[in-house]
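Issue 218. Parser rejects a valid record. Input:
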Amino acid sequence: AGWPWLLCEPTVAGPLPIQPTATGATTRAAHPSPTGTPVVLAMPTGPCALDEITVTPTVPAAVAGGRVDLVLQLTGIKPACTFTVSKDTIVAKVTSGNDRIWSSQDCPDAITRSSVVVRSGAPTDVTVSWSGRRSDQQCSRAADWALPGYSHLTAAVIGSEPNDIQFKLDHPPRAVITKTAHPRTKKGTGTVCGGDNAAGSC
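Output the parser choked on:
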């Protein structure tokens, strides 16, 4: 009964929270623009409906053989609303062609429950740490590493249309092995004239 298509512990980064005023009212949080001018962000007016949120997946960097940060950018159709990120509201998978490499359906506990504010004017980022390994129904920690190459990250809020992005899982850098040079010494411990190496003519 899972989703036919399709993340390790997420951390959430988004616009500044709403701050209460001294009178108990709320004000809109100011967020600096690229030009330095404060941008006023809308206050949440209530919970978001699942079909009002769009997920845009991104992968800033990916190297095989280690953890990969999968960044899901959430935007809504309302100026601002609250949304609960959890295994019951977000699904994601990593594929390569017909090969299903990793899925949050296999590892549902990888998505930690958290509350965020979703806005129409600025995306809210949810960063999920993928182990870089393949997944199975047991979410085994001993699964094989995903191989280098091009893959797709697909994600969505349940009830909304999925979006995907192609990314490249790069080869890990080659280890550089350095060899310490040891000077060679001739047999014996003396000089040419004297000691073990003394010549007969000395």
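Fixed in the parser; the record now loads. Residues 67 and 131 are 5 Å apart (CA to CA).
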